Amino acid sequence: MMETWILAAEEGAEASSGLDLLLPATPELVGGIIAFGIVFFFIWKWAGPAINRSLEQRQQAIAGRLEEAEKAKAEAESLLADYRQQMAEARQRASEIIDEARQAAEQLRDEILAKANEEAAQIVAKARDEAAAERQRVLAEAREEVANLSLDLAERVIGEALDREAQLGLVQRYLAELER
Question: What's the whole-model pTM score?
Answer without folding.
Answer: 0.40
